[in-house]
Design a protein that fits this description.
Layout (H helix, E strand, L loop, with lengths): L13 E2 L9 H9 L7 E4 L7 H8 L7 E10 L2 E10 L6 H8 L4 E4 L2 H8 L17 E3 L1 H5 L3 E4 L5 E5 L1 H5 L4 E3 L6
Parallel strand pairs: 4-6, 6-9
Antiparallel strand pairs: 1-2, 2-8, 3-4, 3-5, 7-8
Protein name: YbaK/EbsC family protein
InterPro entries: YbaK/aa-tRNA-synt-asso_dom_sf (IPR036754), YbaK/aa-tRNA-synth-assoc-dom (IPR007214)
Amino acid sequence: MCGVWTIAGSLTPVPVLDRLDLVADPVAAALRSLADGSRLAVAEIDPSLADTAEFCAHYGSPLEASANCVVVAGKRGDTVRYAACVVLATTRADVNGVVRRRLDARKASFAPMDDAVSLSGMEYGGITPVGLPADWPVLLSPEVAAAPELVIGSGVRGSKLLVPGAVLAKLPGAEVVEGLAR
């Protein structure tokens, strides 16, 4: 799969296992142990174009083939639980409904940027479901899990991962959640 990416636009994808220097340290560690690691590619990008809309417009990658990963913090009393939500860029995660209930929280919201960065070991704007803390659920919309190819973050703003949705569905802690995306 690594050689043929119809969603790459003007990117030059290379096998990610050959260029682990282009991803965040926790992502590289996870990729080394991932059975499907050879199915992923990475492409170097201009870090100032890491945000999805700018990235897609500049590199010619379709917005509907991009998936965003957001970190959500759910609180109940003094307990805070984190989860990663991965939805297509053309949708939004149902944080206050589906995610809040999944985390058994009274209140759920996007995690503060400093928390998301320090807990994940990744850069803001590049957080990816690959390599997140083992105790975090990785909630995927069915559309993400079913996608033949996606562009996602790499843990840094200077590159993107290209990955089949089926690989994301096999990540540790991954759950396909109906109704996650709106």
